[in-house]
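Quick one: examine the sequence and fold tokens given here and explain what the tokens say about the fold. Here goes:
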Amino acid sequence: MTQVNGISGEEPDPRPSAGPEAVGAGHVPAERRPSGGLESTILAALWAAGAPLTVGQVQGAIGVELARTTVTTILSRLYEKGTVDRTRSGRGFAYTPTEDAAGLTARRMHSELRKDEDRGTVLARFVSQLTYEDERLLRDLLDGDAR
């Protein structure tokens, strides 16, 4: 099975995380992962697998030491968001992404657009910040020359 490293590419801190009361002489607090970093890592593992994975298989594929409960929680959240689908596999579930990476990005863009009442202004600002190449690609797509 393909190993997928975390987004940062760095090895996780092998020291156990400690609460604020343990920080002091000889203790350095563990660095927090960026928001959504674990979700991205798990989705990358699912996309790389190309087949449904159980929690244990995801845990082995991501190449980051995470508790099984943490992986289960993240997969459950992704399922609730509609980002992954699941089917029974033994006593648990096997998970599959509902979309590829480009589809997920498009869904996120739509979600952000729906948050603002002035869609015209949002779209105008978005388009005004496109590179020449991206603007040309968007124009081709709108003209029906989709790739």
